[in-house]
Amino acid sequence: MNTGDEPAYAPLRDVARSPEATARYLADIQRVLLDIGKNLETLAIETRVHCRGTHVDGDRWYHARMRALPVEKALKDVLKHVNGLTEGLEKTAYKRNAFEDEVKNLPRKRREKELERERKRNPAPLRAAPEPPQPGSPQGNPGYSGPASVYDLGKRESA
């Protein structure tokens, strides 16, 4: 029995804590499953040849094939499930790494979100637009404040 002070040792606890270790462990399992899948493919081919070659007296040419179909289908289903497992292991390793990245980036995202909330709560004061110049007051650049058309030239001549 375990006491409350010392937790039970779980061999996969360290693997679960590290995304790299999880990926390595899942890759090992995937290698084993791929090897099993190859063996099952070979078994399916050999079973197909044997079952379809087994004829009984009085069979027509298709009877052996019809008897072999359920066996072939069962092996095909097992292969499909093995392939699904290997794909699931790849997906799991990817999602584990994505989870770790999300956990690492979460404090930064929360800070950014908080700063955005603060900006919305306390918007920066708008600066007043500069006042238009008064007629008769001296201007910094008289070249731009000249007449707008040929008719406004007054004493000046056009180019």
Fold and architecture overview:
With 159 residues, the protein is an all-alpha fold. Helix content is 62%, strand content 0%. It has 3 helices and no strands. The N and C termini lie far apart (104 Å). 2% of the residues are buried. The mean pLDDT is 85.
Descriptive keywords:
0% strand
Topology:
Elements lengths: L12 H5 L1 H35 L9 H59 L38
What is the average per-residue confidence, as pLDDT, rounded to a whole number? 85
Outline the low-pLDDT stretches: none
Separation of the first and last Cα atoms: 104 Å
What share of the residues lie within helices?
55-70%
Q: Based on helices, strands and strand pairing, what is the structural class? A: mainly alpha
Proportion of strand residues: under 5%
Shape: elongated
Radius of gyration computed on alpha carbons: 40 Å
Q: Can you summarize the main beta sheet?
A: none
Number of helices: 3
Order of helices and strands: HHH
Regarding quaternary structure, what we see is single chain
Number of strands: 0
Offer a concise description of the structure.
By secondary structure, the protein is mainly α. It contains 3 helices and no strands. The radius of gyration is 40 Å and the shape is elongated.
